[in-house]
């Protein structure tokens, strides 16, 4: 492993899964430096959580390209600012770049941006824009304004859902409009999204959701036909000048099949669609967006259009695929905020495969034969990145844990794959 270099800045990354590892890996690749990954200090960690998910996720364990620290009360919204300011005091000699790996913390940062920007570089939108895009319901209203397509949608509220008939053919999708509020609720039947086959099942799911602490609106949508390979993910960096600097599209190869994590990418391959990127660029620049953005969508073969699902106020969980394709996503932030480098707009066209899965598992479960052939060829040509196995960050403990994690993913696929595609 190349020796670590001192830099005048320090990336601080909230949460420690594979997304955080990809961010730290990007900084290491560009600057040969360690990032600091932080998690809220929690009690009651189990052996399984420590190994597989953890307060510190396995992705960042036994790594030489990052440091890790627990921070008391980081997940308490009333003490979030205080916790981060206390952390900033430990690193006063550095310029601190604060980065997040989920929407909960992204929204907390935006809501407290005025206080936090005294201590951190914050590549995020402001509160006024957050209020316009915070839920899927609000995002879809903007889609209407900018003529961006999304699935046929009905908005349900707790007061107006009982026995309501919907003018959408089954199967349908049910999901929360407010992702952050839904993440913080708990109930036995909880899934990230629900594929529903009839009216009785719909009513049962809605009742279960509203018995929990989640009381916001629900999204009922038509199901867009097609397997994981019809899904696209778009990652964007928008500069402080509110101009798009970098865009990269990925074609999902496989996503997590488990009910709790449905929608999370486990393998992607870069794609290119200039018309799609132009439409999103115009949207982002017109609303005054800054920082990272991530869009999930699905190609609808019935009309040849992409249908948007959501916009995330951060980089995507699989966004290291952008760096792996030759365009270091984190370097754009440093250049923008620290070195005043004005990048010209780039739409990435390099083909590359990024995967959390062992190749054997990936190709066993991929349904799209054309993409499978293309992915295999890219691997032969060296255009392939394992999300966690990184030759410049390897030791025997890390290697063993990652091999165990691969085994866990194989077991998960054998358990859930057919159910998730039924």
Secondary-structure topology with pairs:
Blueprint: E1 9-14, H1 18-31, E2 35-40, H2 47-52, E3 66-71, H3 80-90, E4 95-100, H4 103-111, H5 113-116, E5 120-121, H6 127-133, H7 136-145, E6 153-156, E7 172-176, H8 179-183, E8 194-196, H9 199-210, E9 218-222, E10 231-238, E11 244-255, E12 265-271, H10 274-287, E13 291-300, E14 305-312, H11 320-324, H12 329-337, E15 346-347, E16 353-355, H13 359-365, H14 369-380, E17 384-386, H15 396-420
Parallel strand pairs: 1-2, 1-4, 2-3, 4-5, 11-15, 16-17
Antiparallel strand pairs: 6-9, 7-8, 7-9, 10-11, 10-13, 11-12, 12-16, 13-14
Explained architecture:
The protein has 15 helices and 17 strands. Strands 10, 11, 12, 13, 14, 15, 16 and 17 form an 8-stranded mixed β-sheet that branches. Strands 3-2-1-4-5 form a 5-stranded parallel β-sheet, with helices on both faces. Strands 6-9-7-8 form a 4-stranded antiparallel β-sheet, covered by helices on one side. 36% of the residues lie in helices and 23% in strands. With 422 residues, it is α/β, with parallel strands linked by helices.
């Amino acid at each position: 492993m190349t020796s670590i270099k001192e830099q005048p800045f320090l990336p601080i990354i909230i949460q420690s899964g594979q997304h955080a590892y990809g961010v730290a890996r990007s900084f290491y690749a560009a600057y040969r430096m360690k990032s600091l990954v932080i998690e809220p200090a929690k009690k009651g960690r189990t052996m399984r959580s420590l190994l597989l998910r953890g307060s510190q996720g396995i992705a960042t364990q036994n790594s030489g390209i990052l440091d890790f620290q627990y921070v008391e009360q980081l997940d308490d919204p009333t003490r979030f600012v205080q916790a981060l300011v206390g952390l900033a005091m430990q690193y006063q000699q550095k310029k601190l770049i604060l980065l997040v790996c989920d929407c909960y913390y992204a929204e907390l940062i935006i809501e407290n941006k005025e206080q936090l920007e005294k201590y951190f570089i914050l590549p995020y939108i402001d509160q006024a824009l957050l209020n316009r895009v915070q839920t899927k319901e609000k995002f879809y209203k903007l889609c209407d304004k900018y003529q961006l397509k999304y699935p046929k949608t009905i908005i349900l509220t707790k007061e107006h859902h009982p026995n309501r008939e919907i003018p959408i053919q089954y199967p349908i999708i049910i999901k929360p409009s407010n992702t952050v509020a839904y993440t913080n609720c708990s109930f036995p039947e909880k899934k990230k999204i629900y594929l529903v086959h009839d009216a009785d099942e719909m009513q049962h799911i809605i009742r279960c959701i509203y018995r929990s602490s989640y009381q916001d609106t629900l999204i009922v949508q038509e199901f867009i036909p097609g397997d994981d390979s019809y899904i696209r993910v778009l990652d964007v960096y928008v500069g402080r000048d509110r101009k798009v600097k970098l865009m990269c599209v990925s074609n999902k190869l496989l996503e997590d099949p488990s009910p709790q994590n449905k929608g999370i990418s486990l393998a992607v391959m870069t794609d290119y669609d200039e018309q799609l990127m132009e439409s999103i660029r115009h949207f982002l620049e017109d609303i005054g967006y800054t920082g990272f953005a991530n869009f999930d969508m699905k190609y609808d073969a019935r009309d040849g259009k992409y249908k948007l699902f959501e916009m995330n106020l951060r980089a995507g969980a699989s966004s290291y695929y952008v760096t792996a394709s030759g365009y270091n996503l984190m370097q754009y932030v440093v250049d923008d905020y620290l070195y005043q480098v004005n990048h010209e707009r780039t739409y990435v066209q390099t083909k590359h495969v990024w995967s959390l899965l062992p190749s054997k598992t990936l190709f066993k479960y991929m349904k799209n034969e054309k993409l499978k052939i293309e992915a295999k060829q890219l691997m032969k040509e060296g255009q392939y990145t394992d999300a966690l196995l990184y030759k410049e960050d390897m030791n025997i403990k890390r290697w063993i844990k990652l091999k165990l994690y691969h085994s866990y993913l194989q077991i998960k696929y054998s358990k859930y794959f057919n159910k998730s595609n039924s």
